[in-house]
Amino acid sequence: MATVFIPPMAPSATWLSLTDLGRIYGISAIHCGRALQQQGWRDRHGRPTPGAIEAGAAFNHGAHHTPRAALWNAQICSALLEKTGYQQVSRSLQIEQWVQLLEAMEQGCPSINATAAQMAEELPNELIGDVNHELAQRGCPFRAAGPSSNTRPTFSAAA
Questions:
Q1: 153 or 31: whose pLDDT is higher?
Q2: What are phi and psi of 16, to 5 degrees?
Q3: CA–CA distance, 55 with 51 (Å, rounded to integer)
Q4: The pTM is what?
Q5: Are 105 and 116 in contact (CB under 8 A)?
Q6: pLDDT tens by residue, 29-59
């Protein structure tokens, strides 16, 4: 039986994939990974370095320690990314971008083979209610499905 290392965690620690961490800054998982690698926190195979693990910035979950099994501490990694010049994308901008994308996808484009529903699968759960609210405000019939799609919006991109 393999032993899985669970790092000591602060009560409010949030562990994210590179995709989710990069989304906070409007960058891809690849770009985010490169930024962490330049700071010495990822090795050339994409795995967290011992320094990243010791700093509490990362841990590998799962027995195989593959790059995709790594999770990153949002607070610690955010501090590093911001120190190197990255800035968080505002929530209102994220909502606006998702609304524009889903609106365009709902209208259809012959050169794109994905549907609005397929694209909406990548929509972060915490934005679903607000994006659906904005889509409704614009008269777009599409609604993203998800756990918060039936909740009352708490934020408006127009604000």
A1: 31
A2: -125, 155
A3: 6
A4: 0.62
A5: yes
A6: 999 999 999 999 999 999 999 999 999 999 8
